[in-house]
Amino acid sequence: VTDLGGTAALVAVTLSTIGGMLMLRRVRLASVMATAAVGSSALTLAMKAIIERPRPLTNGEIIFASDSSFPSGHTLESAAIYGALVFILGSLVASRRARLGVWAIGTTVALAIGASRVYLGVHWASDVAAGWMLGLALVAGTAGLVTLDERVANFLQTDARTQVSRLQSLGARSSILGIVGLAVLTAFLVGVQFEV
Questions:
Q1: Distance between CA atoms of 55 and 141, rounded to whole angstroms?
Q2: Is residue 30 a contact partner of residue 21, using CB atoms and an 8 Å limit?
Q3: In whole angstroms, how far apart are CA 127 and each of 103, 121, 122?
Q4: Are residues 136 and 187 in contact, defined by beta-carbon separation less than 8 angstroms?
Q5: 20 vs 179: CA distance, rounded Å
Q6: Residues 37, 42: Cα–Cα separation, whole Å
Q7: pLDDT tens for residues 158-188?
Q8: For the chain, what percent of residues have pLDDT higher than 70?
Q9: How many angstroms separate the CA atoms of 65 and 127, rounded?
Q10: Are 78 and 5 within 8 A, CB to CB?
Q11: φ and ψ at 133, to 5 degrees?
Q12: What is the DSSP string of 159-180?
């Protein structure tokens, strides 16, 4: 399971999704995946360099990981990339039941990858929890901004009566940025404070 969060799997998912979206001329959806991939990788490298938390003592008993422990790169990057994939597929599927299935599968994969990192002894549970929060915050913020951008474009093309209800919707969507910021701050504080 942990290999689903490895470089080979994530690069394959990223490139095939971006390629597919570009073939369908869905540039905004392709940009969600590209931002999730590049952003999660950059965030992982930056956080590991800043915090430099040592690995648990169990590192090496099953597998060995050499860089800093916080945050779990497998967890953060898979939460962001599989989360972006779920958002993209959910945008393309009309059936509510199918969307729920996509969400269930994506959530299961992200949770299993994170749990596998603790099981293998290469991460503290807080590394994994922070990885989930940061990855999901990244994809939620990106998807929220793309959705907001589409709504603003639609808003500018409507009459005055419709604009009032759309403004309320835009306000709700823009609050995503506040939630994302809180998740990032919480994940950072978890990483600085605990080795659990």
A1: 29
A2: yes
A3: 23, 12, 10
A4: no
A5: 30
A6: 9
A7: 555 555 555 555 555 555 555 566 666 665 5
A8: 70
A9: 14
A10: yes
A11: -65, -45
A12: -HHHHHHHHHHHHHHHTHHHHH
Query: What is the value of pTM for the model shown?
Result: 0.76
The structure tokens 């999660």 sit at 40
Which residue has 């940061």 as its token pair? 134
Q: Kindly report, residue by residue over 114-135, the tens digit of the pLDDT.
A: 889 888 888 888 888 888 888 8
DSSP states of the chain: -GGGGSHHHHHHHHHHHHHHHHHTT-HHHHHHHHHHHHHHHHHHHHHHHHH-PPPPTTTTSS----S--SS-HHHHHHHHHHHHHHHHHHHH---HHHHHHHHHHHHHHHHHHHHHHHHTTSS-HHHHHHHHHHHHHHHHHHHHHHHHHHHHHHHTTS-HHHHHHHHHHHHHHHTHHHHHHHHHHHHHHHHHH---
Q: Give the span between the Cα atoms of 79 and 44, in whole angstroms.
A: 12
Residue 50 token pair? 């800043």
76 to 72, 92, 104, 125, 150: CA distances (angstroms): 6, 24, 18, 13, 27
The tokens describing 6, both together, are 């490895």
Tokens read off for 167? 């403004």
Distance (Å, whole) CA 106 – CA 84:
9
For 155, the token pair is 């808003």
